[in-house]
Amino acid sequence: MTDRKKFAPPAIQEFAPKLAEVTDTVLFGDIWERPGLSPRDRSLVTVTALAALYRTDQLGFHLGKALENGVTKDELVEAITHLAFYAGWPNAMSAMTQLQAIADESDEPA
């Protein structure tokens, strides 16, 4: 078996190994690798879906992943602002708070 990157949190890998396995192999190993959308576009779709549905537990990870995949902080701010009028103000404010914390953390000197 090849060494694949593990995306499921370590606690889930231990507690629910099958869920961790399908997260790593199906979701990130297959769905995220399909050629129809770039990783950048998939990140933007994922962030907006998680923010709209108030899925804050996964949102922080995906905001960071979006930045890694080339979505800019300004683009995320704009997407979340736009989303406020369709998915609700509280959802957008929570997403923006998480994004600000991640952006502030990444701006800190190493």
Automatic annotation (TrEMBL):
InterPro entries referenced in this protein's UniProt entry, alphabetically: 4CMD/NDH-1_regulator, AhpD-like, CMD-like
SUPFAM superfamilies per record: AhpD-like
Residue ranges occupied by any Carboxymuconolactone decarboxylase-like domain in the UniProt entry: 17-99
Transmembrane spans: none
Cross-referenced Pfam families: CMD (PF02627)
Listed PANTHER family: 4-CARBOXYMUCONOLACTONE DECARBOXYLASE FAMILY PROTEIN, BLL4600 PROTEIN
Name of this protein: Carboxymuconolactone decarboxylase family protein
